[in-house]
Design the sequence.
């Protein structure tokens, strides 16, 4: 069985400050992990993915995430938030060898001027 | 290259009425998914197709939901009859093959049942 827990339903930051969105997972097999972003009235867009290569993964728009097997975590970070980053973010886990994704509940990122 | 196309974007129907959603995946993508996203939650898988075969439909409420993927390309998801609790966004996604590390999502169909 696999599951994803996004530890915060909402994260609020000021523009220019760092962003941390937390994600913990459980998976019976070596997982692939993803972060997707969903802007209002738009489709889900892949930010980055981990598929058993480098544990520090760089994605689009300055985001990155680090896979920590010992902590079963895959937290998403960005050094400096931009107003355009305000959106819903989803952490996704898929067991190794197949892409049958399970989504977390989502974290709403709010960016203040 | 066109992405995953879904229609309609919005649909409002009365309860007990039927409704259908259509999805055109990215050309050449063999795997197609239908997800349901309730308000404030993450998407949940309803059904997954490999070409025209439904290989994972354990989460599909089969008493009222049905899906098909004729010729392994376009897909239709149907609800008959709709209930108030079916109000949600229905998302379609596709990937090149099972085991591909990325699925591409359409913009979804927002269903409101009144």
Sequence:
């Amino acid at each position: 069985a696999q599951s994803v827990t996004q530890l915060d339903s909402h994260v609020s930051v000021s523009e220019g400050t760092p962003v941390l969105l937390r994600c913990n997972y459980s998976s019976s097999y070596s997982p692939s992990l993803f972060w997707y972003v969903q802007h209002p009235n738009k489709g889900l867009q892949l930010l980055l993915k981990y598929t058993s290569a480098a544990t520090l993964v760089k994605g689009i728009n300055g985001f990155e995430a680090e896979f920590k097997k010992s902590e079963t975590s895959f937290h998403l970070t960005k050094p400096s938030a931009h107003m355009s980053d305000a959106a819903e973010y989803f952490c996704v886990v898929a067991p190794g060898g197949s892409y049958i994704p399970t989504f977390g509940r989502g974290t709403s990122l709010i960016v203040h001027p | 290259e066109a992405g995953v196309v879904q229609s309609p974007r919005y649909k409002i129907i009365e309860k007990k009425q039927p409704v259908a959603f259509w999805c055109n995946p990215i050309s050449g993508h063999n795997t197609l998914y239908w997800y349901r996203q309730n308000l404030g939650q993450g998407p949940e898988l309803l059904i997954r197709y490999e070409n025209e075969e439904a290989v994972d439909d354990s989460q599909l409420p089969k008493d009222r939901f049905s899906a098909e993927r004729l010729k392994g390309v376009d897909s239709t998801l149907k609800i008959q009859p709709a209930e108030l609790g079916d109000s949600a966004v229905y998302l379609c996604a596709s990937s090149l093959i099972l085991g591909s590390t990325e699925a591409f999502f359409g913009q979804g169909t927002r269903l409101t049942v009144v």
